[in-house]
Amino acid sequence: MKKVLTSVALLLSALTMTAQNVQLHYDLGHSLYNDLSTRPSATTTVEMFKPDKWGSTFMFTDIDYQSDGVAGAYWEISREFNVSKNQQWAAHVEYNGGLTSDVNTWAATRFQHAVLAGPAWNWHSADFSRTFSIQAMYKHYFKNSHWNVSAFNSFQLTEVWGLKFANGLCTFDGFCDLWYDPSAKGNWILLSEPQFWFNLNTLKGWDKVNLSLGSEVEISNNFVWNKNKEHDGFYAIPTIAAKWTFE
Fold first, then answer.
1. pLDDT (tens digit, 9 = 90+) per residue, 186-222?
2. Whether the Cβ atoms of residue 123 and residue 131 lie closer than 8 Å to each other
3. What is the distance between the alpha carbons of residues 175 and 105, in angstroms, rounded to a whole number?
4. How far is the C-alpha of 215 from the C-alpha of 223, rounded, in Å?
5. What is the tens place of the pLDDT at every residue in 70-85?
6. Which pLDDT does position 106 carry in this prediction?
7. Section 110-137 average pLDDT
8. Contact between 75 and 48 (Cβ < 8 Å)
């Protein structure tokens, strides 16, 4: 599970707040699809968002697990610099990369890492219960010697949303990425990871329990690699998830 910007609705949850959380996802892909039988069964995610007077910093790390240990890791870090007085427009820069292990040899292999840059537009309602962001970015992939893949230039469009309702009991958030990759079928890859959470700290007597229970669905086209080392299909992969948010 890559989670290019997964669960980054917290990025826009408040311009004056710091947010960190840890998530645990049990992935159902290996049970639902025969060609994903080697897919890791669990993923932990650590997210951090910190605003300041110039903009904001966001980062997350995913670690995937098989039954006998860690199978791979991926991380992203991004920085936004405000370029308008109302803080809606920003300049966005980002890095992402990671590694995974071959299920046959267990040798670690590096993803083709990338840097991104471009404008971002951020919006929120007055009470921050609704948020939306869109980023249009130039993307540069570096050469990967292990896979003998050359460097190339790309473009990525990202949308991020967040919605809290039922007096804060429920959160619906997520992202959608579309980017160019000449190795993919049709040259484009789509990845979206909507999440739905029940926030237990909104219940009477549970105000100090910052635990959320819910699910994420990884919706992808030409992104997920199957056991035949192909990434040219569509998948919708749900998880069973828990999240603890640090104040």
1. 999 999 999 999 999 999 999 999 999 999 999 999 9
2. yes
3. 33
4. 20
5. 989 999 999 999 999 8
6. 56
7. 94
8. no
CB 128 within 8 A of CB 13: yes
Contact 136, 157 (CB under 8 A): yes
- Pairing state between β 188-192 and 152-165: unpaired
**Position of tokens 């009991």?**
169
Q: What distances in angstroms separate CA 213 from CA 6, 14, 25, 60, 218, one per listed residue?
A: 16, 22, 10, 19, 17
CA distance 152 to 141: 5
With contact defined as beta carbons under 8 Å apart, do 164 and 179 qualify? no
- Mean of all residue pLDDT scores within the chain: 89
Q: What is the 3-state secondary structure (H, E, C) of 108-177?
A: EEECCCEEEEEEEEEEECCCCCEEEEEEEEEEEECCECCCCECCEEEEEEEEEEEEEECCCCEEEEEEEE
Provide the β-strand partners of residue 61.
46, 75
* Residue where the block lists tokens 């890859």: 189
For residue 174 the two structure tokens come to: 């997520």
Buried b (16+ CB within 10 A) or exposed e, 29-45: bbeebebbeebbbbbeb
Element (H, E) at 32: helix 29-32
